[in-house]
Amino acid sequence: MYSKINHIFFDLDHTLWDFDKNSEKAFAAIFAEVLPEINLGDFVKIYAPINQACWKLYQNNLITHDELRYKRLKDSFDALNISVSDGMINKISEDYILHLPNSNHLFEGCVETLEYLHRKYKLHIITNGFAEVQFKKLNNSGIHHFFDTVTNSEMAGVKKPHSGIFDHALSKASAQKEESVMIGDCLDADVAGAINFGMQSIFFNSEKVNVSKDINQITNLVELKKLF
C-alpha cells in the first residue's frame, strides 16, 4: 500500500508528543505554587475533554488563539466550582505555555520508529499547535533532527483540516500528494483533512476507539515499522 511513499507527515501533539502526560506535569508545577488547594487529578479529568473541545472550536475558526487559552481554563475551573479571577487565569495560561515544553514524554516507540523511518523516508510535521511552543517541544524532546520540515497553522494561514495547510506543507517539502502520507490522532483534522486533500492517511488510534474498517489505523507507533 505504501510502496510509492517518499514523504511521511506527522501530527505532533497526541501523536508523537504525549500532550496529556506533559500537560499534567505542567499543571502540577503551576498549581503547587499558585493554587495548592486544587486536586490535580480532579482538574485534569475535567480539563482534558474541555481542552479538546476548545481546540475543535479553534480548528474551525470559532474562537481565537487567546480565547482558546482563556476558555479552556475558565471552563475547567467553573466545572469544578472553583472561583479564580481573570487575572489569575491569564497568569496560569502564560505559565502553562512556559512550563509545557519542559516535560517531554513521547509516546511508546516514538524514537525507535522515527529512527527507522528516517533512514528510508523524508519526515515532516504538520501541526495546528502554536509555533512558539511546538518548536520548543521538538527541540526539548530531542526529535527535531528527524524532520526535514515543520509546518504550523500560523505560517500556513489556515488550520487542519483545511487543504491549504497540506498544500503549504507539501510545497515546503517539495513533495507530491501521491508520494505522501499523513499520520495523526484526529479523525477530522489529520485523517479526513489529508484524504480530502488527496493524500493517504493513517489514524493513530492510541485510545483504541471504534472506527470504520475503511480507515487505516495503528494503535502503537512501532506498527509503522511493519507498514513501511
From TrEMBL:
Pfam families, sorted: HAD_2 (PF13419)
Signal peptide range: none
SUPFAM superfamilies (UniProt xref): HAD-like (SSF56784)
Key words of the record: Hydrolase
Keyword Lyase in annotation: no
Any one GO molecular function term: 5'-nucleotidase activity
InterPro entries: HAD-like_sf, HAD-SF_hydro_IA, HAD-SF_hydro_IA_YjjG/PynA, HAD_2, HAD_sf, PGP-like_dom2, Pyrimidine_5'-ntase_YjjG
Protein name listed in UniProt: Putative hydrolase of the HAD superfamily
Species assigned in the record: Flavobacterium terrae
